[in-house]
Amino acid sequence: MFINNHDGLELSTAMLINAAEHRGIEVEILDLEDNFIRLTKGDKIEYVKQATRTSADTYIAPLIMENKEVTKLVLREKGINVPAGIKVKSAAEAMAHYEEFRGKDIVVKPKSANFGIGIVIHKNLQCENCYRTAVINAFSHDTSVLIEEFVPGKEYRFLVIGDEVVGILHRVPANVVGDGVHTIEALVTEKNQDPLRGKGYVTPLEKIHLGKTEIAFLSEQTKSIETIPENGETVFLRENSNISTGGDSLDFTDEIIDDYKAIAVAAAQAVGARICGADIIIWDIQKKPDATNYSIIELNFNPALHIHNYPFVGKNRHVDDKVLDLLGF
To answer: Pfam families annotated for this entry (predicted)?
Structure first.
């Protein structure tokens, strides 16, 4: 059971505070809105913002991870597999490449956005207007846009702290399961009643929304919010699997072989990060990694902790304690 007894703080920060107090560390909330705290024990002082922005990381590491193009370049140089793709500076430039992407599975995303913002996936692209809309949407979040191959498989979030992977989640896109009676809209309303779901990272999971993206994705499945799914039928509302857009989190820390954990640590080290969330697509988690079986699609400089302590399915990995260990407490 999760408890956020610090009103106004993100759950990850609240968790870190609780873990720190349990160790006898003095905690001061310096800026509630910014989730900025100070940890003190004896002569040791550490400042922490949003639970994972700490003195353990240099200034440049988050800047590298924020820039998806630079991240891919650095990882590729280290022999780590990343998706092929191009960067465009305008919608006109993107449209000039439409024919080479037509019929393929692609991902359109802002170069420097985070949390799945502005990302659109198209399978077997045939609709030029849909492609244009995705590009324009991505440009509303950044001045440069990446158009990449879609890598098949399941997406896993590896949380790297120090030199180890301390938690792995498979994130399932926002979804509902039909009962043969209620509409998709009603099922979303019911699922959102779960106390685990809230808004603004104060709970382990985020509420599911039924906005333009979800409605468009349902339309691609010849469904609408008024559709009544069959009993037991799972209906996905988005292509991307971010927890921030209503996805579910399933703990896979013990199921994935160490080879992939080593890749996640190597990726973090390549960009100089001590705390890092590596999003890796894997086709078969028991097969040894090769260029056909995995690809790192993103590194995150401010990874959420709470999703690993309070997964939708799985056990608490106590990753807040790992942060305190890294900081020398």
So the answer is: ATP-grasp_6 (PF18419), RimK (PF08443)
The distance from CA 86 to its chain's CA centroid, rounded to whole angstroms, is 22
- Return the residue matching tokens 């590729």: 76
> Each residue of 75-133: pLDDT tens digit?
999 999 999 888 899 999 999 999 989 998 898 988 876 666 788 888 889 889 989 99
Which residue type sits at 95? M
Is 46:39 a contact under the CB 8 Å cutoff?
yes
pTM over 0.70: yes
- Cβ atoms within 10 A of the Cβ of 320, count? 25
Size of the chain, expressed as the number of residues it contains: 329
DSSP string, 237-276: S-SS--GGGT-EEEE-TTTS-HHHHHHHHHHHHHTT-SEE
- As a whole number of angstroms, the distance between CA 110 and CA 152 comes to 20
**Spacing of C-alpha 31 from chain mean position:** 25
**DSSP β-bridge partners for residue 235:** 176
Start-end of CATH 3.30.1490.20 domains in the chain: 84-150
Edge to edge, the sheet with strand 145-149 lists 85-88, 145-149, 106-110, 120-122
CATH classification (class only), 84-150: alpha beta
pLDDT tops 90 at residue 317: yes
329's tokens: 């407490």
pLDDT band at 228 (very low <50, low <70, confident <90, very high): very high
Round to whole Å and give the CA distance between 261 and 25.
31
The residue type found at 63 is: L
Give the integer Cα–Cα distance in Å for 101 and 51: 40
Beta bridge partners of 157: 169, 279
